[in-house]
Design a protein that fits this description.
There is one protein chain. The chain is mainly alpha-helical and 129 residues long. 65% of the residues lie in helices and 9% in strands. Helix 2 crosses helix 4.
């Protein structure tokens, strides 16, 4: 998914994508049922069509219903969205993004989480990333 696609989702579209990613696939009725404050059924269907036009979803017909599924695996979409955030808010600096995250969450991280992060940094150093 391109960075432009990742950035082009409204709050409602992101909510619907999260629901479909969580379920793996879903109908418009299932998406609507899982929403915190759902709009009308026709609004959900229209938004799912927009997401399909944007290239985020595809559908297959199951009887009278359309079953929607993501076109990109969640981990790839997550990476694309994170790249966009780093580029937009941290001028492309991974260091700046990580530093901001640690500033925000350092008191909330457990010793195990900090050790896991440290191990990941050491591995990245060894691999020359």
């Amino acid at each position: 998914m391109s960075q432009k696609k990742a950035a082009s989702l409204s709050r409602r579209e992101r909510e619907m994508m999260d629901i479909i990613y969580e379920a793996g696939r879903a109908t418009a009725a299932e998406v609507r049922d899982a929403m915190a404050s759902p709009p009308s059924y026709s609004a959900v269907r229209a938004t799912l069509r927009v997401l399909e036009e944007k290239g985020h979803l595809r559908h297959r017909q199951d009887g009278p219903r359309y079953v929607f599924s993501p076109t990109v695996p969640r981990d790839k979409a997550r990476q694309s969205a994170l790249k966009h955030v780093i580029q937009t808010f941290f001028d492309g600096s991974t260091h700046g993004a990580v530093a901001a995250l640690l500033d925000m969450h350092s008191s909330k991280l457990s010793k195990e989480e900090l050790e896991r992060l440290s191990a990941m940094i050491e591995e990245a150093k060894r691999e020359g990333r």
